[in-house]
Structure formats: structure tokens, C-alpha cells
## 1
Amino acid sequence: MKERAERAIAGCRRIALMTEEMGRTTRRFLTEPTHAVHALLRERMEALGMRVAVDAVGNLRGLWLPRGAGEKRLMLGSHIDTVPNAGAFDGVLGVMLAIEWVGIAKELRLPLGIEVTAFSEEEGMRYGVPFLGSRAVTGTFDATMLKWRDADGVTMDAAMRAFGLDPGKIEDAAIGDDVIGFVELHIEQGPVLEAEGIPVAVVEAITGQTRLNLRFTGQANHAGTTPMHLRRDALAAAAEWITKVEKQIRKAATTTDPGLVATVGRIVVEPNAGNVIAGSAEVGFEIRYGSSAARHRWTKKLVGDAEAIAKRRGIGFEWTERLDQQTVRMDRRLSTMLKAAVNGCGYSVRTIPSGAGHDAMVMAAHVPTTMLFLRSPGGISHHPTESVIEADVEASLNVGREFLMRLAKEVG
Ligand code: GLV
Ligand code: MN
Ligand code: MN
């Protein structure tokens, strides 16, 4: 498996160079470098004898249908878009490993159909909404999103057409009941496996999340001539709210709601000039927690706080919900098979919840789904220093071998 692990890691490093921004990895949904990623993946898939196509939402899908496999197939995959200034492994490693799993199935002559999907979008960076690729695959893509615009004013519809896709055909991307399950391989993106000295773990559930866009609208004006008490400063209003969010959620996380996290990771200020009072501040907010009731309660409370702050300051306020994704449990039968495969390889069987979102969240509502995590050195992800240990990648391939043999026996 050493050669497979080396090839998967080298593939991730090469794809990290396919970027929108010189010197760092940023690859948002359907931006130009996605073509180069598709070309590399296509080459690897076709070399194995897979049939490759790109669906209408830009997912690259490779089909491995060996003789005697029948119509049913297992799906494997992860995403190929990234956050800004990303690492090389979030998402892409899952695609590289999926291709290697196909290579293993081929080597073992397993009569098992496998489809590998490189989902075009999972991070939610370009249109403020994640899982575009897996939504199309599960037939849950909401076509009203096609009118949404990115930061440059390009509609989702136009972005798809510019990439050479036909948004009118998104419905055709949906899978039917010939898919028997979905497995996503992904880095943990957290410190738990490293702390315990364990190479891989089986995911038990993925934490639900809600994302909002909030806009504070004040009055842009001269920073030198407008007295403090006559200002309507949108950025100051947003800042007051952000610190209030942090204070309350920190307290709740150590008292009533352990594990609760909320983040403001994005703020767009207009006109964003040192000598102009901010006229508007648009804030990207997300909150993650297992209990939907508590997540919704907190969302309502925090939006109420923003409203109150805006009112007191004479500032306009509006908000929109971009995502409300429930917590999902992984499929018991498929996870048990994956745990048996981990055990069969002689590794400790560890199950773990995922705080990060994954395409598996969307897939799980439609097809039996499970995930395998690989240890993240330093617990670092969404950062250029994100890495993996080659021996762990080998471990995940050994698990793949065991898992595929078990599944082929069951299906066949
Ligand atoms: C995806 O990486 C997410 O959890 O935001
Ligand atoms: Mn990510
Ligand atoms: Mn990811």
C-alpha cells in the first residue's frame, strides 16, 4: 500500500497548486483551476478503466463497473473546492483515496461496481451555501439558488455556463436506488486521534449547523468631521454584536451547552476605508451543535441581540438564513462493516463525532452513508500547514481493502 499512499499524497500536493491565487491554495466552486483538477482526476480514473463524466453541477464522476458486478454500486468521494488559503488534504484526499480504493478492488477482482465522485462544492465559499455538489447528487438542489450572485456579481447560473455546464440538466445528476451506499474518506481536521495515537476512526455522527448572513446598514461619512455622537457606524454595530456572540457562546459552552460553537469568520465592510465611517457591514455567521432545538434557540437569541444593537444605534439591520443542516447519524450497518474492517487490520476501533460538515451529511439522508477519518497532525485544517502521515494513509488503504472485500461478499 506504500506506493498507493505516496501517489495519493503526491496527487493532493499537485492539486494544491491548482489555485485561483498565486502562492496559496484557493479554489472556489467552478473557478478556472477546477478544470485542471478535473483533467488530473480524469486521467487517473481512465487509467484504471473507469468511465468518466462531469454532471451539470460540475461533479466529476468516475464509474468502475467490472464484469459480473450487476447494476448496484458503492459510491465513494469527497469535495475538490477549498476554503481561501487552504491546505492540500481537506476533501481532495478523499477523492485520491477513493481512486486508490478502486485500484484495490480491481487488483482483487472484486465483482463490485464503484462510483467515485469529486464533488464540485462543499465549503460554501463562493455563494455562501455549502454542499452544492452533493445536493445535486441527492436530487435536493434548490434551483432558486441559480439566481444568487458571488462577490463579483456572477450568478450561479452564469458560473455554471461559463464552466461549460447546463444548469437546466441538474436534475439528471441525481442518483437512483442502484447506489447501495456512500463512504467518504476525510482528514479528521481536529486533534483527537493525534492525542490518542490512533491512525483512523469511524465517524458516528456529523454535527448540525446553521449559517446566516447579517447586514448592518449605517451612514458612510467623513471620519474627521462627524462627531462621535452623530455617527451611524455599521462596523461598530457589527463589532459590538460579534463580541456579544463570543461572550455568550463561550459561557454556554462551559455551562449549559457543552460543545456549542459559533463563529463570525467573514465581514465585508463598505467602503472599507480608514477615513470613512463604515456605511455597511455584512457578517457571515455560523453556529454548530448537535441539538437542533438548542441551535435554533441560540440563533433566535443572537439575531434578537443584533436587532437590539442596531435599533439602539439607529442602524438598519436585515438577515437571511443560508443553511440549516440537521445533525445526521451515519448508517449503522455500513459503519459496523467499516469498524470490522478497522479491527480486521489490527487497528484500535475508535468512533468519533464530526464537528466539521461533509458531503456525507447530505448523502446520509438519501443513501446508507459512513465516513472514515484519518488523523490530522497538530489537529490543523483549513490552513496551509494541514497535513497527513503517510503511514495513516496506508492504514486507510488497508481498511479500504478489508471493507471492500466484506462489502463485495455481502452484495455478491
Ligand atoms: C467544512 O469544511 C465545514 O465544516 O465548514
Ligand atoms: Mn473544509
Ligand atoms: Mn472537507
## 2
Amino acid sequence: MALQSRSPQQPDDVVVELEEADAGAVAAALERARAAGARWAGASALERSAALTAAAGGLAGATDELTGLMVREVGKPVTEAAAEAARGVGILRYYAQQALDPDGETYPGPGPEALLLARRRPRGVAGLITPWNFPVAIPLWKAAPALAFGNAVLLKPSPEATAVALRLAELLAPALPGDLVEVLPGGAGTGQAMLEGVDCVSFTGSVAVGRRVAVAATERGLPSQAEMGGLNASIVLADADPERAATVVAGAAMGYAGQKCTATSRAIVVGDPAPFTEALVAAVEGLAVGDPADKDTVVGPVITSQARRKVVEAAQEAAAAGGRLLTGGGAGDGAGWFVAPTLVDGLAPDARLAQEEVFGPIAVILPVADEDEAVRVANGVRYGLVASVFTGDLDRALRLAARLDTGLIRVNAPTSGVDFLAPFGGEKDSSFGPREQGKAARELYTSTRTITVLPHQG
Ligand code: NAD
């Protein structure tokens, strides 16, 4: 089957067109990756570390090119795309160091001469299934630890980000042994075929697909992790400066057209919502919408015409359900898939817009009477990726943080933004399996072997 990826700001620009990897191509790539992985697992940690450092250097020399391709293929505003390319370099450098970390622990054995060791070893071939919205950072925050710990990598990128994935692999290739990292272009069928042969699976994408992938992996007895959707809340306490909070929330809700799993979708305002609401509308209306290649642009297009329709329909449905459209609600009228940043209030916390991820530039304001209600509303969704709290009162922030059911909690910070040095993942429907990133990544990409050694005679 042919696959086509188009530029969302200019849909007649076909960025790449090629055949999807079918079952035969996937099986052949698996065989090559398995052989390369076995050699790689036998290399010294110093060699693996040096190769990842060299790969970081290769990427660092091509960040402008990669940035331009991200802008073109997935419509990411250039400032964010450049930051993502730089982050990719940082991720490779970080895991180059982790390759040199201790690869296990010793424990007290049955006697003083005995050795009891728990050592980490690679799984084999890591199968990565990734979305289009962070086409460099997500493949790399999975591939870099997989490689650092001695695995081969098969990457099944989102069809919408195929060109970036292929170029990324080309840029890494000179630093790595042949066949160790391979991209399998395609959609669901290619992903399913890959799941048949790999040794562990790391997925990022929607809840519906992530669940299916985790079930398929489990049926094969494979360890897996799935990072999925979010419906992230920012709680604005009564003491917070409404304008400062609004500026941060506007960027987190609408930056890259809200297409981040960590975007703010719900602003929960404790006490009088008017000052914050007014400031948020002004901040959102002040965001530059337009060509993602322009360095001032904050909100570019959404990824496809279907994504645009979904945002417009969500706004219409919210209005029909008694919500008030404070700004936005309509599609842009250029050639690209633009949609106006949209804010809604007047909805109950159980309205669809306050319950289900739209994955676009749309957010809802939910006023609450006190902190208890803020916690109830924040936790009253099936997702649990990230929450943020705005306040100058550290005691309150800590009390709230302890009660929020999310994997990440950020105080006076946007819900969006990921630190690759720290564990990343959510609660409830947002995540399945061990955490990604930081030192947590080792959990998926290695297994532990416990070794007992006793004296030969004694
Ligand atoms: P998606 O679930 O549609 O696709 C993700 C990947 O799965 C793609 O590569 C796709 O081709 C593949 N796929 C689809 N069906 C499959 C199947 N049956 N078997 C195997 N693979 C299959 O998601 P998307 O539209 O690319 O990305 C947007 C979603 O990703 C949003 O829900 C967003 O919240 C989520 N996301 C989560 C995180 C996180 O870390 N939690 C980060 C970024 C995006």
C-alpha cells in the first residue's frame, strides 16, 4: 500500500510518498536487526557510548535541516522544532553516558566468598511505535536508551512523520553499525506485523491504539510500555497572579496548536474566575497564528483535515451543550489545516469537552469553589498525565500535589514540557507499563539476570 505524507500548512505539498513496509519487509528487517543486535550486545559499553556520542554529533551538525523538515512535515512552529532538534542531541548525549553506568548490583550471598549479582542485559530487538507530534524527540527518547543498553531498534513512525523518521535514521547511521536501527514506514498493519517479531515494545500515541498494542504485546509475552493521551488540568488558586498564570496556560494550551500530550485542556479556577478568564482570553488572542516557518508563530496548523474537523465539531458541540465560546471556534480560511485557538466556559466538568481529549487548540475553563472541588474536578477524568498548580503558597501546592492523580505535577509551570533526565509517564488511562526517560528507561529495555557464584571448593 502506498503511503503519503503532506504538509499541514500546504496540503498540496507531498513531503514523501512511498510503499508501506509489508509483512515480508518487516520480517526481513527483523532478521537483519536481530543479527546486528546480537553483535551490538557483544560490544563493550565504551563502544556503545562512543557510538551514541558520535550519533549526537551527527545530529548536531544537521539540526537546521531537521528543523526545516519538521516544520514542513508536521507543521511544528520553527522555534519549537529547533528546540526539539536540540533536545534530540541532548537525549543521545545523555544516554551515551548511561551506557557507562553500573549494569547491575551485588547482594549479600550465602557466605562471605560467594557472589550474588543481579545484572542487566538487553532484550534483543526493541519495537518502537511513535506518533507524529514529536517526530524527533519521541523516537530518540526510546531509541537512545534501547541502543545504550545493547538492543537493536525497529521504528514504526506515524505515517504523518515518515520523512522526518527516515532522515533521522540516515543521520544516525554513520555512527552506528549497519542494520542496527531501521525505520519501517507504514500504518497500523506495519505496526502489527512488527509486533509479531520484536522482543519488547514501546508505544506512544492515543489511548485506543496504545491499549490494543499493549494487549497484542502481552499475548506474545512481551514487555511493553504505552504512553497515551492526556486531558491535563492547570489549577489556578485564588492567590495566583491571574495574568502571569494566564500567559503560561495560553502557551501550554495552544502552543503547536494544542497537539501535545501534555497540553493544558482544562483551566480549573478557584474562586472568582473573571480576572483569570479575561486574562486568558487576551493571552490566547495575542498568540501569533500562522505559518509555522515564521519564527514568531506559536500556533500553526493541525495535522490533518480530520483533526481540524474534530476541533471545530468539539467547539460546536460545546456551544450546543450550553458552553460559551469565549474566542475562536472556527476553521481558518487558508489552504492549510488552520483552526482558531478556542476557549470555552460555562460547561459542567462532565461535559464531553471536559472529559475527552480533542488534541487541538481548544481548552475549557472550569470555575470551582475551593481546593477540594479543584482536586475532584482535576481527578474526575480517565486520564492522568500531568497537572499544574499556580500559587505562591508552597504549603497549598504541596497539599494539592499529594492529592492529584497524575504522573507529573508542575507548580507555577506549564503542563507542557518534558525533562528527559527524569522519569516520564502518567496514571490511569494515560500510561501502561514502566516509565520512560531518565534512568527509568532501563526497565523496559533490559531484563535482570540474577547470578550466584560459589567457591569451587569450600
Ligand atoms: P495514534 O494512536 O493514532 O498512532 C500512534 C502510532 O500507532 C502511529 O505510528 C500509528 O501508525 C500506530 N498505529 C495505529 N494503529 C495501530 C495498530 N493497530 N497497531 C500498531 N500500531 C498502530 O496517535 P497519533 O495520532 O499519532 O498521536 C496523537 C496521540 O498521541 C494523542 O492521543 C496524544 O495524547 C498521544 N501522545 C502521547 C504522548 C505521551 O508521551 N503520553 C506523547 C505524544 C503524543
